[in-house]
Write a structure and sequence with these properties.
This protein is an alpha+beta fold. It is 37% helix and 24% strand. It contains 13 helices and 17 strands. Helix 2 packs across helix 3 and helix 9 crosses helix 10. The longest helix is centred in the C-terminal third of the chain and has 37 residues.
Amino acid sequence: ALDRIHSWLLGRGEVEAGAVLERAAGPMKARDTAYEILVRTGRIASEADRFLVTAGIEARFPPTVAEAAERVAPFAGSARRMDYRGERAITIDDDDTTEVDDALTVRESGGELIVGVHIANVAAYVEKNDLLDVEAARRLSTIYLPASTVRMFPDRVSTDLASLMAGAARPAFTIEARFDSALNRIGFRAALSEIQVHERLSYDEADRRLAEGEPALSALARLAARLRADRAAVGAVVLRRPELKITVSNDAIHVKRIDPNSASRLLVTEMMIMANALAADLAVASAAPIIFRTQERRELPPGDAPENEVLAFERLRKTFKRSRLSLSPGPHSGLGLTAYTQMSSPIRRFTDLVTQRQISALIEGQPFPYDRDDLVRFLGAAETAEQEIRALEERASHYWLLEYLRRESMNQALSATVLDSGGAIELNDYYLRAKVSGGPFRAGETLQVAIESIDPGAQEVRFKRIG
């Protein structure tokens, strides 16, 4: 019976076992109930990530795929690639990032600023339709949960051979853009390349160097500010609120506030947007078949924008349209671009690898690896997977945030902003939305609240007004 329950969770049939659980616990609780049964009986380890188990996701790679990864040969160099090893390439990432898929170079020459965005060239290691490729196409994306990570490729590829680690020669896909002294773009090119990262920086270290005025980083920051302003001028959404990064290690929960508006994070964001937009422009100009990302124009509600930042963001959030994948180029309103694709994360997003392969074929004058029918299949699967993975990541993060509050903040006063007169609030330190009792309420006011009831497993929390 336990084997049948486990097989049902992993999506390997056993419909009858699932039906029994759904009748006993209800459709919404059946998978959680199965997880509890398997943990209590020792069928799965108590430290197994409940969200992977209940979603039926197997983190381990099949033995044949793991063995194929171990057979992948290291990069041996290629005379046909542009050689950037002499340029000072840097990476800027979170401290715990191990899939390093982008690096930057910048130099001045003849009054021009020349910026290189170098993306890990996964296609140099993984061939279309080989064992690694088929498995990656099945997974479609790396999944990042607070307590675990499920990679799209085995570590041998994702965190070793393809990762742009400092001090190692690596194959790359490069977008190089040229700007005049007024930071107007005057040209760009795409090429397969070889780079060697000279230094890995954390965001905090990059921010420190920017504050000290390091020339190369400062030049990139000035360009990033210009690119952001240009996008904002045509309607791009540039308001970015702080985010929480939640990690769980040995049952200890760590909650870190991330400021997406720090100089280094804005710099990296704008360089990636630029590279992806230029790749899209190249594909459009050459009629190359790729997967574009589009977003319909937002309809702004009438009236003045609220002065309160929380309410301003809430008003803006309600105008967001979901971005979509398409084989036809179209505007991306949120980014303020006429065409956009994504090829900057090929280690952890399969459609980025597909796009990288298509544009690589274009610049090398080779036949495209994928026709439109192939891309249509990827497009549909990727959109579905994207939604499911985002929902899974949100559920897991919400659970661990509630568990953190249950452990650390019971009977404590917490600051919150009222979103509407019905008692919807947002915790100011945790960006958590919930309901509060003890009205009346006025949108925009700041309250002191305390936890009234909390159940992380049921994803439920309610607050009461205090003071």
